[in-house]
Inverse folding.
């Protein structure tokens, strides 16, 4: 079994990311042509931000089946996974970044923190590299580990959930691929530079 | 005598919706109201009759893998006189005249300032000190360019010195005319209709680009 499959909608930013992180990706899967069973060859599947939501809805059953068989799925918003993923209940709600230009102000910060700094993804990616802006927030599912929360636990921006049948979902409302791929916002590049090596190790540890 | 367009008595604009399905869709309010307007999903291009379309408009997030798969149809469209507006970073050139996106060094930040090349009727009314800023932020408009084909009009330029002492510059916006056919306008950045194109203001960049495509002789026929 291969480690990481990257689901691509054909957008330029996603094609750019697939090139930039090819050392960590075992294959790029073109979403429109996704067939039953294609996802099963991979220990981890990444659905990058700003994917084609219509296609995700059309292929939603394949992602559900992958998770139900114990797969490791990582989905970035804004993809409205709450509308096409049913194996895991995702509760997304609209929430705008308080001030998307916070980084232009002295002492500025995005209104988020890492509630469980010992989580391996939080250890791999520091808070500063998780913060630029976000697209909505989640209600944290019971039993899930929060990786990035809004201040005062108003909602969750990244969480890690192990499902009863062994599947694992990391859900994120931050959108690193679009900005890295468009060569805009250095924090998003730092995020991905740390995320993919971590994910590669994490996937490899899931056995053959 | 009234001018005839491919779409009939008024130019026709076809907005191709693609990957992005998140932001509010304002396009119907941005295109000149005297034009004919329609919008389709990108995958419907495979079967859509394009003979009555004057301008085919691709957003900055479009499925390049799919468009490459229907390249002969798109080549036939421009060869027959249809025009393109293409936004975004091209990684998989889906027309023979498109090239891969090249980023310019982001430092110094002035590399992202947009400068006039030969702006003509496309950008001639723009204030280059600010038309490309988004809420005052530099760089949202574009971070690079793509080489233009021979004979193209290089409308706007981007780039400057790099870390190694060299210089990386190129055309961020260019337009090329197919011999005997239509024009290909390429904006190597984010959705251009988000810049200086609110219908309540003048000058209006999107209107100027569309009118220059359809009504002007720029670039000159080879």
């Amino acid at each position: 079994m291969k480690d990481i499959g990257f689901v691509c909608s054909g957008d330029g930013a996603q094609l750019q990311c697939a090139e930039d992180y090819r050392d960590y990706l075992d294959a790029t899967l073109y979403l429109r042509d996704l067939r039953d069973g294609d996802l099963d060859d991979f220990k981890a599947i990444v659905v990058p931000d700003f994917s084609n939501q219509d296609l995700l809805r059309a292929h939603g059953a394949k992602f559900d089946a992958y998770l139900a068989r114990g797969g490791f799925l990582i989905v970035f918003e804004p993809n409205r996974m709450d509308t096409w993923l049913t194996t895991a209940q995702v509760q997304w709600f609209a929430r705008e970044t308080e001030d998307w230009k916070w980084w232009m102000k002295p002492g500025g910060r995005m209104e988020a923190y890492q509630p469980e700094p010992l989580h391996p993804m939080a250890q791999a990616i520091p808070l500063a590299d998780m913060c630029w802006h976000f697209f909505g927030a989640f209600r944290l599912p019971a039993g899930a580990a929060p990786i990035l929360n809004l201040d005062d636990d108003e909602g969750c921006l990244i969480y890690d959930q192990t499902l009863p049948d062994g599947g694992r979902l990391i859900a994120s409302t931050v959108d690193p691929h679009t900005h890295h791929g468009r060569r805009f916002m250095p924090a998003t590049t730092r995020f991905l530079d740390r995320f993919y090596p971590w994910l590669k190790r994490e996937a490899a540890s899931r056995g053959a | 005598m009234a001018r005839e367009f491919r779409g009939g008595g008024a130019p026709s604009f076809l907005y191709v919706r693609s990957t992005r399905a998140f932001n509010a869709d304002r396009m119907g309010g941005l295109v000149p109201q005297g034009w004919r307007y329609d919008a389709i999903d990108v995958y419907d291009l495979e079967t859509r009759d394009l003979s009555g379309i004057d301008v085919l408009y691709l957003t900055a997030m479009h499925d390049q893998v799919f468009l490459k798969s229907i390249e002969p149809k798109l080549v036939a469209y421009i060869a027959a006189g249809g025009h393109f507006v293409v936004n975004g970073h091209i990684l998989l050139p889906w027309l023979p005249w498109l090239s891969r996106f090249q980023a310019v060094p982001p430092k110094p930040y002035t590399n992202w300032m947009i400068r006039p090349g030969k702006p003509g009727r496309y950008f001639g009314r723009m204030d280059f000190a600010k038309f490309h800023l988004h809420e005052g932020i530099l760089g949202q408009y574009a971070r690079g360019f793509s080489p233009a084909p021979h004979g193209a009009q290089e409308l706007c330029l981007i780039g400057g010195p790099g870390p190694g002492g060299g210089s990386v510059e190129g055309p961020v916006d260019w337009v090329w005319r197919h011999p005997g056919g239509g024009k290909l306008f390429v904006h190597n950045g984010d959705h251009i209709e988000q810049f200086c194109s609110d219908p309540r203001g003048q000058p209006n960049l999107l209107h100027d680009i569309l009118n220059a495509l359809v009504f002007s002789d720029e670039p000159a026929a080879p």
